């Protein structure tokens, strides 16, 4: 399409078109575009000192959940915390097992080790990949009261470019 | 809001075991409470969800303009803190043909890295709900930069712009987990006339428990990354296609790819073709090279 032809369209039409493209109004992700959504945080619920609490990646209410809407081949890796840390230095260990990761692409389900990451391939017919994480919090007996925090980092890298 | 709602929902849980003995009115109340819980959880999920859209995922820059752009968009109702940084990396493969992209803050010696002389404007920003932001990438290469292609990766780090929700786990013990995402886009910077091409260094076809397994090793010629597509067809003794696969492939130095055909009974040969065809990256950004074809017989 030449610039000359394009300029004949009303300016507002191009603005609307640009808005539609940018907003991802289409249900299918645009080519060479990635939309990552962190849908839900990992929720360990009620912790009792001395009692480990496990969240499995099939636990709809408490697992961490991400959606990656795109097409192509990607490597998904995680930087996982080893502890939930309190400001004064107290810590609650957190562990991620080798089946605590789960990927769903349409009806294809893959279980993976979050520490190792996973490769995904989203075909043009697929709209997105759903990625879930479970884990285990292991509060030791006598864990002091306080606010404990940690960060989970998910990295999405295209392996085809 | 999340915390308050969790408190409100929690007292309902112990009643679940009493449900069979409930009277009709109590059952109605329980159903209403359950429905309310679902509504609240759904609303919480929608409110909590955070997102960032990155486009395009591959940036091509040249020495004439020395600029590129990435468009970020936040479609969700919470702000996102965005941080743009650069690292060096390109796809490499292991002995099984699995591909990964190791990232380095500093490029290994001898690599054609653009990482050190790239800048993003703005480098940090808050993406408000519904906001779109163009990030401009500027190159400031050294004056004596030789002709060639130089590589980098752009790391777009998104963190929720509000503190993570604290879950009340005990009267005075709280847990908060921050979820951060890093989307990595590729960047290729070209100066002068650059070429690319591929050599097949090894090809192997065996039958395994998992099916027919084809392994291809390739290495790149020229100065630029080879960006293209591979088509692999499993053929029977009469050269009829019994199965086929296709995938994108990028060769920066050398690469191994493996294809497994679980349902290729009767196949005795593989025919493959590697073409510099990547319309999704903008075909004009692709440096073309002659198509590489070949066949490999079953061992």
Strand and helix map with partners:
The complex is a heterodimer of chains A (161) and B (299).
Chain A: H1 3-8, H2 11-23, E1 34-40, E2 53-55, E3 64-69, E4 72-79, E5 83-86, E6 91-95, E7 101-105, E8 108-112, E9 118-122, E10 129-133, E11 135-137, E12 146-158
Antiparallel strand pairs in A: 1-3, 2-11, 3-10, 4-9, 4-12, 5-6, 5-12, 6-11, 7-8, 7-10
Chain B: H1 2-9, H2 24-48, E1 50-55, E2 58-62, E3 67-73, E4 80-87, E5 92-93, E6 99-100, E7 118-121, E8 124-127, E9 132-139, E10 148-160, E11 166-170, E12 173-191, E13 196-208, E14 211-222, E15 226-235, E16 241-251, E17 254-261, E18 269-275, E19 292-297
Structure overview:
The complex is a heterodimer of chains A (161) and B (299). Chain A has helices at 3-8, 11-23, and strands at 34-40, 53-55, 64-69, 72-79, 83-86, 91-95, 101-105, 108-112, 118-122, 129-133, 135-137, 146-158. Mean pLDDT of chain A is 81; it is low at 1-30. Chain A is 12% helix and 43% strand. In chain A, strands 2-11-6-5-12-4-9 form a seven-stranded antiparallel beta sheet, with no helix packed on it. Chain A is mainly β and 161 residues long. By secondary structure, chain B is mainly beta. In chain B, the strands form five sheets. In chain B, strands 2, 4, 8, 10, 11 and 12 form a six-stranded mixed beta sheet that branches. Chain B has a four-stranded antiparallel beta sheet with strand order 1-3-9-7, with no helix packed on it. In chain B, strand 5 and strand 6 form a beta hairpin. Chain B has two helices and 19 strands.
């Amino acid at each position: 399409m030449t610039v000359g032809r394009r300029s004949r369209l009303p300016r507002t039409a191009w603005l609307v078109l640009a808005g539609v493209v940018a907003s991802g109004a289409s249900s299918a992700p645009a080519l060479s575009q990635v939309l990552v959504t962190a849908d839900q945080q990992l929720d360990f619920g009620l912790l009792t000192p001395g009692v480990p609490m496990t969240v499995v990646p099939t636990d709809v209410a408490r697992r961490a959940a991400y959606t990656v809407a795109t097409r192509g081949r990607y490597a998904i890796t995680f930087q996982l915390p080893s502890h939930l840390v309190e400001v004064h230095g107290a810590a609650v260990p957190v562990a991620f097992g080798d089946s605590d990761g789960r990927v769903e692409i349409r009806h294809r389900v893959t279980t993976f080790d979050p520490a190792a990451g996973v490769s995904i391939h989203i075909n043009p017919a697929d709209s997105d990949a759903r990625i879930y994480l479970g884990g285990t919090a292991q509060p030791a007996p006598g864990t002091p009261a306080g606010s404990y925090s940690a960060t989970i980092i998910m990295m999405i890298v295209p392996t085809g470019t | 809001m999340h915390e308050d709602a969790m408190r409100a929902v929690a007292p309902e849980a112990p009643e679940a075991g009493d449900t069979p003995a409930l009277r009709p009115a109590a059952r109605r109340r329980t159903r209403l409470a359950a429905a309310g819980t679902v509504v609240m959880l759904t609303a919480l999920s929608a409110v909590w969800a955070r997102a960032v859209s990155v486009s395009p995922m591959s940036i091509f820059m040249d020495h004439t303009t020395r600029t590129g752009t990435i468009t970020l968009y936040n479609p969700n109702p919470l702000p996102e803190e965005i941080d743009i940084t650069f690292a060096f990396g390109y796809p490499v493969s292991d002995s099984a043909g699995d591909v990964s992209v190791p990232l380095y803050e500093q490029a290994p010696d001898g690599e054609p890295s653009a990482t050190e002389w790239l800048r993003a404007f703005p480098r940090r920003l808050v993406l408000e709900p519904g906001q779109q932001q163009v990030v401009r990438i500027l190159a400031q290469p050294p004056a004596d930069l030789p002709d060639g292609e130089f590589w980098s990766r752009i790391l777009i780090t998104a963190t929720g712009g509000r503190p993570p929700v604290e879950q009340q786990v005990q009267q005075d013990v709280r847990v908060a987990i921050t979820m951060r995402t890093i989307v990595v886009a590729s960047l290729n910077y070209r100066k002068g006339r650059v070429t690319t091409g591929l050599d097949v260094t090894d090809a192997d076809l065996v039958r395994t428990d998992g099916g027919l397994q084809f392994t291809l090793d390739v290495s790149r010629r020229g100065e630029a990354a080879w960006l293209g597509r591979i088509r692999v067809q499993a053929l029977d003794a009469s050269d009829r296609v019994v199965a086929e696969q296709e995938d994108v492939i990028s060769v920066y130095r050398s690469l191994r790819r493996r294809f497994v055909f679980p349902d290729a009974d009767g196949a005795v040969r593989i025919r493959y073709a590697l073409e510099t065809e990547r319309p999704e990256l903008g075909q004009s950004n692709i440096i073309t090279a002659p198509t590489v074809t070949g066949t490999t017989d079953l061992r």
